[in-house]
Here is the input.
Amino acid sequence: MSRFSHMERKIIKTSDGSSSIYLPEWDENYHSKHGAIQEAYHVFIKNGLDLFPDNRALNILEMGFGTGLNCLITFLEADRRNLSVDYLGLEGYPLDKGMIKELDHLNQLKAFQSEEAYEKLIDSSWETPVFINEKFKLLKRELMFEDFSGKKVADLIYFDAFGARVQPELWTELIFKKMYEALLENGVLVTYSAKGSVRRAMQAVGFEVERLPGPPGKREMLRGIKLGN
Here is the structure.
């Protein structure tokens, strides 16, 4: 079993008042210390989900399911915009359900009306698809990024791995080639990272890469598009 699965995890408050998890051994957070919810909305919704029109079907792949925050806000946005979503979340080391609930993201988002949906999202079994509501299907898979092999399965990828400082092996051409192959034509990948090495790895496997303004506390982020032929 990996050393990572035994690491100490502490719940912290970020600058926008929302909670995240801190790994002291790596000095690494699950979300930006400048605001977990702000970062999730800026990177994955504003610069990812919002590129797609309302009232359509969408396949989303999340690399790094983590606390489920990105999935939760996607559910809320999908419900508001009448999107039919098939959501696949990959996580090598699932978090304890009790710790996820202790983060209190539902209340921090003031999404009290979605409590039942959030309970389903957190409590659903790994490897078993579940309908959070009639238009939002979720499958959580306990799988390492390097073991993923899906081809043309996603319109949109949320790439939310731990940073390259602590897990450089997740930010390589090998991994981004898998991401490129996982996307449908004109599919989009968004990530909070803006490292030059990451941008070059994405470009090397075929992505058209844009540098965009980052969330609070971060100057830039990256978005890659798999252009159709």
